[in-house]
Structure formats: C-alpha cells, structure tokens
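Amino acids appear as letters; backbone shape is given numerically. Here is one record.
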Amino acid sequence: MAVQKLPLAKALNESLRKSLESDPKVVIMGLDVGKLGGVFRITDGLQKDFGEDRVVDTPLAESGIVGTAIGLALRGYRPVVEIQFDGFVFPAYDQIVTQLAKMRARSLGTVKMPVVIRIPYGGGIGAVEHHSESPESLFAHVAGLKVVTPANSSDAYWMLQQAIQSDDPVIFFEPKRRYWDKGEVDTEAIPGELHKARVAREGTDLTLVAYGPMVKTCLEAAAAAAEEGRSIEVVDLRSISPLDFDTIQASVEKTGRLVVVHEAPVFFGSGAEIAARITERCFYHLEAPVLRVGGYHAPYPPARLEEEYLPGLDRVLDAVDRSLAY
C-alpha cells in the first residue's frame, strides 16, 4: 500500500528501514538505539532485523559517537547518529563544528562527509532540564552544515532519506512533541527538493513562516483567523540552512505582512535572519514591520511553566493582530 497514515515517529522508523535496505553503507549509531529502539522508539526493531553491526548501541559519549561517525564517513560509510535529546548534543559540538562541518572545505572538496545527526528537539512533552531546547540557530550559523526539520509524517519519511543520501553533513532536527501526530505518507511519491520551503496554506492578508513543531500551531492560528475573515498564508520552511528565501519573498510580496514563529528564543534566533533578509528584499511591499514570535531569552523552564514559555495560539494571533493593525 503506497499511501499510509503514520505517526511522525513511525514515518522516521520506516525511512531509516528503507535507507538500511537500500544502501549497505548506512549505519545507525547512538545511545540505546539498538535493543531499546531509542527512547522515542524511532529505531525500534532495526537492530533485530539488520544486526548489531548496522545498528550500533554506543557508550554514553556524544563526542565519541560523532568522532566515530566522521571516521566511518572517511571510510565510505553513511553514518546516521542519534543524539538522545537536544541538550545532549553539546559535548559533541566541537566535533561537529570544527571537524564535521569543515572537512569538505579543508580537503578542497575531495573528502565527502555524508553524516546525519538526528536530534529530537523542542518542548511540549513535560521533560526536565536539557530535554526541551531548540538549538537550531547554533548549527545554522556554521558554514558546512545543512540544517533541516520536518513538520509532518510525509516530510519526516522523505527528508530523512534525502539527508542520508546527501554527501554533506546534515543536522536533522525532529520535533519531539509531534512524534505522535499522524499524517499521510505516500511511499511511492516523488519527493520535493530537500531545501525547498512549501506553502502549507494559501492566504492573502499575512504570511506566517514557521518550521518543525510550530507549523501545526501556525496552521491552527490561520484557521482561527479565518473565522474572523482574515486570510493567512502559512509557509513551512522545512530547511533552516540553506534557507529558501525565494518562497518567503513570493508570499510576502503577495500579502505585504510577515510574522516568523519558532520555539527557540527570539533573541538571535533564526527568525532574525529571516526578518532582516525579507526587509531587504521586500521593503517596498511590506505594509508592516516583520514581527517575530518565539521563546524567551531565558533558560528553559520547569515543565509546569513550559506552556507559558512556548509560543502558542494566543501569542501567534496577537502578533497577527499587531501586524494587521498597521
């Protein structure tokens, strides 16, 4: 059956299975990815079916995991590394930004680095400290890394396979609070470009740009605004680096207004780059300043306060109101 309705987590599992079947050089590595199947069960059943040499339970040492993946890539493998939670990636940050990201440029393009680093990110699951962060802008700032994030099951299935097939390192952020959201996956479809944004909802009055976990929130905001007669366009970025400014520009030239939404703190977030670039490109089309909605410039709070920290429907709609008031 080509079209299935799958939770995003299961779509990722099927994508990894397809990649392992298609290419014997694909290797999955990480803490508890084998016998346990990962804390979110993304790799469930893969070690049983493909063996311990293809799905490798590693020690708890993120720097060592990524360093080993770099070595495997140098030997022609395509390692897929799982970082168990977003906040655990930082012991490996040095390996990622000084080695993984630079190897291809350092070798004048002769050395490929086909490494995928999967990172569950974002909040909304009531987790403790270092389990709910959104560090995507830290990686998007690093030349040599590709940074992508799916918002639905179909993109999860196809984008992960495309990332694994890439000869450049890809940081693959998975919106953990959307793991259990179901969506249709056509396993025989022709996927779009990995770094191309998509218009998730057409509109004429204002553009909402989001990615990962916030796409669903923005779609809900657009539906709520429609009840008041407002036509909101929603653009799902899908890729944070490189960033598809052309799709955003085309939308803003139509609507004249832009609100950028992400879970990460607004301060120095990816929304700042989008706001600056679209202001440069669309200055004479804008009817209002580009507004940003996101987390606060503060450590991620305890679980009982995270709903106050995370941008929700009300904060997105408030920004829509402020933009339309100009």
In short: The radius of gyration is 19 Å. DSSP finds twelve helices and 14 strands in the chain. The mean pLDDT is 97. Residues 88 and 272 are 25 Å apart (CA to CA).
